[in-house]
Here is the input.
Amino acid sequence: MSILIRNVLHENKKVDVYIEGNRFKHIGPDLAIPAETVLEGHNKAILPSFHNGHTHAAMTLLRGYADDMELHTWLNDHIWPLEAALTEDDVYVGSKLACLEMIKSGTTFFNDMYWHFDSTARAAQEMGMRAAISSVFIDFFDKEVAQKRWEDCRQLFEKNQDLNSRIQFALGPHAIYSVSKESLIKVKEFAEYYDLVIHIHLSESKREVHDAMECFGQTPVEYLDSLELLGPNLCCCHALWLTEKEMDLLAEHDVKVIHNPVSNLKLCSGRFPYEQYLQRQIKIGLGTDGCSSNNNLDMLEEMKFATLAAKDFYSNPTLMPATEIFQTATSNGAEIFGLETGYIEEGRLADCILVDLTHPQLVPNHNLISNLVYSANGDCVSTTICNGKILMDNRQVQGEKEIIRQAQETANSLIDKKSIN
Here is the structure.
């Protein structure tokens, strides 16, 4: 398949962009190359698509459910009990809704942690997206549960050796308060042997740090370090309540951190130590978290919240400028997950968006990246392309009405099941 995007703004210049197969083949003015599909780029700009570094896709079904609560009350008393009723079909439907929402707001990759791996993988594959999908691990320090989880994980890994090239298999130990020491060590060994990403929640709340000191006599990062889990394949989400020593450890071991500003603000989880991470050159990605704690998957909105929260916390309006936060949502995310994406360059995988420069939020166009970070939302994205395939054009995604209908019916059924129980 080939696509020619004509007369589109790229780095403040009008160019043509030719995509052949799944890669950018040629970028330049007035390309005289025949293509199977031609897109008119007049009054549009081409940019890298977004990489959502941490989410729970199927939680779209819980959007608006159990809001305005403290993290552990929210999790223990509301979210986990409802999730216990989720079926494989429910997760598939919820994940397709998440993929639809992400595509419509310019995201082509997401790093997911949720139950029913196969359902999320199937949804991402059908919707044409990229994803790192975790085999979730929670044992609550129960040896029998841990053994069952490991059997499930190994079987899942063996069964998914032939995943679509857009889908990565990852390991998802939920957190140090929900996964035993023995299981965390097994996660490390399994990930090392098969070269897998480890996706974990870390130091999301002050209580988590307090409990770690009570249970292990160490802070969360020190505890992971004692288990030799710290490394370049470790992707820590939230990472709010860290000491200087802990941040030094993350930097020393090239650990990656995913910032989730909207979820952090909504749950009052804590402040993200951006400046300290920046000083240590720790690689930072950006994520939305799930729709039960955000409550959307719009990475444009996430960028704005991230930079405003950082400026306010440090009383420094120059901190986290638009270009910097844009990188966390694009090229940083690509680097963290080993993807040849994140830039519009010849030879790179063809993941990109076209934004509508006539959208009121992008007018006038003094600085496009500033407009995207401080002014825009997902509605400014007119076209989304992933792996050389058009997933959305002129704001239309194939089958979107049916996806929305099924999601509403499934969410209603889920609440009905919980009320019966």
